[in-house]
Amino acid sequence: MSFVATPVPPSSPPSSVVPGDGFWPDIDVAAMRDALALGPGVPHARLLGAIEGGLLAVEGQLAEWRARAESAGATSLDQVEPDRTIAGEVRAVVLWTRAVRFAAAAEIADLHTEMSATGHGAAAAPEKRLTAADYRRLSTEAVRDLLGTSRCTVELI
Fold it and tell me: What's the pTM?
């Protein structure tokens, strides 16, 4: 008896991006899959929809910030503090990408329960599985870092 492995087809077409609007950069779909360890179980169309939702959510939170940046002369996000870099990429772009990725991951975790770790996946690493709330928190932290505001929210009872 022999075993023949068949390659898993790519989850998304190569070089697939969700385009930004010129100010906001494109979101690379494959890079997001890799960063969040999303396998082929998340169909391409679902991931695109979640990324679009993430873009809408984060753009809404940053609308006033963007207006101030454009008033200061920036025509794209990579022109906002271009000398502040992380691993060779402009810090603002890194934070934007993180915010969108995590907002999209929260949507996937919320709406697509079959994508959560179950059975073998849950038994293999239950302590490593992030919830939609975890992803939302990470997205909010990235937005607040970009805004230059505190990550701490305190409410009086």
Answer: 0.80
